[in-house]
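Researcher: Let's continue the batch. This sequence belongs to Succinate dehydrogenase cytochrome b556 subunit, and it's 125 residues. Same format as the previous ones, please.
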Amino acid sequence: MTKRDRPLSPHLQIYKMPFTAVLSISHRITGVVMAVGTLVLAYWLAAAAYGPDAYATAQAVLGSVPGRLLLFGWSVALFYHLCNGIRHMFWDAGMGFEIRDAVKSGYITVGAALALTILAWAIGV
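Model: Same format as before. Here are the structure tokens for Succinate dehydrogenase cytochrome b556 subunit:
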């Protein structure tokens, strides 16, 4: 077999990433985002402990448009990770392993995470 006769491996233009794989990668990414968000929370709490000037600065940074966008992204990550963790608990109990069930629970996870995020921001703002 020559080099020319060998099949080509799929590349990103051909390969369609399964929805469940996207959800799995997203779960890992949101874990990292939550870790970074926890550092922001620690900064905010430390600023509150350092006094009114430091707290006012932290509030100005987090209350700015970029700061609020970061907080919104952090809350999306938090709720997605929470909902997907509940989904994984069902898998640990032996439920939802069929492809159709896994895809359906994935859509429920994404919808619930978005709904919880919107609800939290509607209540908090």
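Researcher: Any comment?
Model: The chain is about 80% helix and 0% strand.
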